[in-house]
Specification:
Layout lengths: L12 H6 L19 E8 L5 H8 L6 E8 L7 E8 L2 E9 L7 E8 L5 H9 L5 H6 L2 E6 L1
Antiparallel strand pairs: 1-5, 1-6, 2-3, 2-5, 3-4
């Protein structure tokens, strides 16, 4: 994962003073368009992932990705949610509360430079962290990319 150069955002003082915090903002009065600066990609699966594999894999993400975060269903603690936070090369995975009434499911979003996200590479990267072949045959994986 790489570092984000704030100069690439091309934010003018009016946009900052105006207080725009909506990532889907296309208001021309703000003087910027978020989709020209960032791309997003998301990954979802109900198949459990191995934490060690996920942690190691996240450290190897392309430098064009600035951030990844989400909730992870793991084989290491299947009854508890794991929260993933990745910024640059720093990876933090912490176990949180039990899933409760919600079905265990991994949901991760990645944010990177505009038009730099390789959806096929990210799909293969995250899928490689799925724990066992038997888990793969049970589950359902969904991917969605946005620019």
């Amino acid at each position: 994962m790489g570092r984000f150069d704030p100069a690439r955002a091309a934010l003018n003082p009016h946009a900052t003073d105006h207080g725009c915090s909506d990532p889907t903002c296309d208001d021309d009065d703000h003087g910027h368009n978020h989709s020209e600066v960032f791309s997003t990609w998301s990954y979802e699966t109900d198949q459990p992932m191995a934490l060690d594999a996920l942690r190691e894999t996240m450290r190897k993400l392309p430098r064009s990705l600035y951030r990844a975060k989400g909730v992870v269903y793991t084989t290491d603690a299947p009854q508890r949610r794991a929260v993933l936070q990745v910024v640059g090369r720093r990876v933090d995975i912490s176990l949180q509360a039990e899933w409760g009434h919600r079905a265990p499911r991994t949901q991760i979003v990645a944010i990177g430079a505009a038009d730099s996200i390789d959806a096929n590479l990210l799909e293969a990267t995250f899928t490689s962290c799925i724990s066992t072949p038997s888990a793969t045959s049970r589950g359902n994986t969904a991917l969605r990319g946005e620019s």
